[in-house]
Every structure is written in C-alpha cells, then in structure tokens.
User: Fold these one by one.
Assistant:
Number 1:
Amino acid sequence: MGIFDTIRSVLGTSAETDATREADPEDLFGMSTAYVTMEADLGYDHANEAALCFSDVDSTRFDDAVSTVEEILEAGELETGTGFHRHADEYGYHWFVLEDDDPEDLVTSVHFAADQFIEAGFGSRLLAAVFGFVDADGPAYWVYSFRRGAYYPFAPRGTNDRDQRTEFSLQSVLDGELAVESDESYWYPLWPDAPGRHPWE
C-alpha cells in the first residue's frame, strides 16, 4: 500500500483546517451516476472494487464502531453479494476493501460504512473513499477526501508517475456531477506498491 507520510498533512489535519466545505457522506452517492458517465462518455470499466481508508485510535468505543461496520458489511455480503475484507497497511492506516461487479452496491456499502463511523462520533478518523476504474491506458481512481469534502481524480502509471492529462480530462467531464476539489495541490497520489495493483493492496 503506497500512502506516504505526507498523507497526514494532505488527507489529514491541515486538509481539514483548509477545507472549504464539510464532508458529507451523501456526496458518495454522486459516484452512482459518475460510474455511468465514466463508462458511457469516457470508455472506462469499473474495477469491481472500492475502498474506505481510515485511521485507528486506541479506544474501546472505536473498536465497537469498527465491529459494527463489519457487521453491516457482513449483512450486505449476504444480501447483495458484496464481498469485503479489512486490510492494515504498513503506514498504520486501515482499509475496508469491497468487491462487487455492481457499482451501485459498492457505493451503497462504502456509504453505509462511512455513515456508521460518523454516527458513532468517529468521522474525523475517515480519510478517503476510493473508487477504481480502468481503460486501455491503465487505471484511474476517484478519491473522496473526507477532510476536504471533495473528490479528485488520480491516474497512476506505475508506482511513481501519474497521467495528469487524464486527470484533467476526468475533472472536466465530471466536475459538477461530483464535487471536485478545485485546489490541485490536494490531488494527493495514492501510489500502489507495484504496477497493476490498487492503492489499497
């Protein structure tokens, strides 16, 4: 998993301080129509996966909140077939990774998980929701920063390069349909560990 130390300033405290709007988990439902636009207008397939990234805290109440999220996702797995697993990366961040070939189910599951953290009083522990896509040129992601209350595009090419032309193209098409981050300095790269892998792997 390739989130570098500066995530603490970009998706963390300073991002929250500099935010121009509050995060709203309802923003995540914008991805339902964005999936259609990405496919119909831009030729992307969805990657059948999405992920929710959060930071841990040494608290029994927080552990209970995480357990409740797992119970919600387990119920969703039985109802919709949306698989999930929890992953801890080498930087100490945690991920709920969801797998489903129905993008609507992915959006709903990510929203339920995020909303549970917020209702339990741990919205500040949420960092990002990440939705994956792919076309002939490679992967692209829409990242929702909970600290900024906005989405931004990320198109990695390998483990340390990004296709900014693709990112600007995604911004131009989806801005308005999604609440896109206007300050490009907050388009933080979530590098994968290896080419062809997702940032949450």
Number 2:
Amino acid sequence: MNITIPMLLNLSLSGIGLAGSDVRGFSCSPSKELYLGWLGLGALSQFFRVHSSNYSKRREPWMFDDETLEAAKKIIKFIYNIITYIFPLAYEYSKEGAFTS
C-alpha cells in the first residue's frame, strides 16, 4: 500500500491519467484494519476496483465482522456521493486525453 500513491501520481505524470490499484491487494489476506485501509485508498483513486486472486481468502465486506461491514458501507457510500464528479472527468479524459475543465 505504501507505493500505491507514488505509483498513481507517477502514472498520471507519465500520461496515464486513469489508473488505480487492486483494492485490498490482490493475492494477500489482509486483516480487517488493512482491508479498510485499502478500501479508503481505493475510494480516493481514479477508479475503485475490488477483486482478488482465486488463491486468496475471500474478503467481501460481509466476510468480516459487523463493525468492518459498517465501515466498508460508509466508504462505499462516500464513493457513490462523489461519483457524479468523477465520471464526467473520466469521460472527458477518455475523449480528450487530458482534463480540460
């Protein structure tokens, strides 16, 4: 997780403006604290993608305790609240190759 923000910033500076990371990691089995950290980081990335390796322990929000599930719901609701700002910019970038607004 420590390299995700520098990686996304460097990709943006290199001309890849729409990039994200694997939320929750891809092939690890994180603790609930790390899981929520990944969700929070993913929520602030250009796109939010939750998936994992077939060889990893399942980790949907409901696979953790109720406290983790409620925290995950708050993060996901936050994403839905800001999506109306993100999608138009992503569309603009896909057409123009840059953000012009």
Number 3:
Amino acid sequence: MPYAIDDALATALVTLNPQTARHAAEPVRDAVQRLLDEEHARRGVPDATGALSFRALTQGTLLKEEFDLSTHAHHSGWTVGALIVDVKGMIHVNVQHGFTVGDALLKAVVTALQAQWPGARVVRLQGDNFAVLLVPSSGLPVSEEMREAARARLARELPAALPEGAHVPGFTVALLELTIEEPTHWQVLGPLVWGELMRAYTLEERGLAGGLQRRRLQLGGFVPGRADP
C-alpha cells in the first residue's frame, strides 16, 4: 500500500540535505534515498566499488565482532594491521576517459585487493583511497612485503579496466600496525582506527613514514580492581 507523509515531515527530510535537494527533480524522494544509502553503508552494505563504506567503520559495527572475539584486547592491547592504497591522479582518469571508466578502475582496485587478501576487510576511506584492514580474525599480520604484493597485483589487473594503451595510474601505499591498549568498548575503535589510517596515509604521501608505521594508543579505559588491604 502507498505511504503518505505530510508537508512538515517532507520539509524536515529535505532540510537534512539542502544542497542536494536544491538541484533534485524529486527532493523528498532523493532525501529518503540518501538516508537509506547512508544507513546501508553503516550496516556494512558494500558500495559500487565492492568496498565497505567508512561509515561502517566509524559509525557502524564493522569492528564489534572483532573486539568481542579478541580476548587478548584485555591484556596486551587490541591490534589491527592495514595497507592503505590511494590512486594518484584519479581526476585525470575521469577527465580523459570519463567517469564510467573511472568507476571501473576503482572497482578493479577493490577486486584486486580483495583477491590478494581474502580474509581482510577492504574499506573506502575517501573517493579513491582504500584500506585493507587485517582484523584479528583474519590471522594476517601486516608486513613490509605487502607493499610490493599490492603494487604487483594492481599492475597486473588494472590495465583490463582501462582503454587499450591507456596510462595506468600510480599509487601511494602505506602500511600501519595499530595497537589500542585498554579500549573500554568496541564503539571507540572505529573512529580511532579511521583517524590513524588517514594519518598513516598522509605521512606516507609526504615522504615522512619511513616504512611500516607502528603506533600504540593508550586509552586506559579499564577500571582497576580493588587493591588488597
């Protein structure tokens, strides 16, 4: 059966995304669709590239099970490894070959990373920036060897996504091992991981990383036990 909404609710929906609604032929429909898309992203529905949205990491439950299963998180810290891949000059691919080709290239990047590390989670941090998360349940340690493995796989598979003879873009590849000591609950992990992923990429992109980056964050979130009298 059809569902009706009143003007007040319709206006409230459109107001959530005023810039988008201003250019939409059906602003209410577009506003509802945007809300649905964002909720699906939070719940871990992959986007058009096949990667998980950053919202699944920062607002969703992507790491909940990983935290619950990681009993060592209460002792030596909760650790996650990551390989971050950023496509260089993506804007030139879109200008020269069109957005359809650009979208195909990004999808090929995700497919290559998923095939290389099938036990990991590939997350889209930004438009052309992806992270391969080596969560505890994957059993995969982060290592310097992953850098060349990623470059070799991408160089082998990406030409098929581009017109014949087209230039294959380069990549910025960063590596991170992050340990969070004494996290109180899983909700704190996502935003911290996202922030450190972006920091690791920025340091690599600026030539300041010096290889595999290792960091420990001390949260001190556990309540100490009662001392013996």
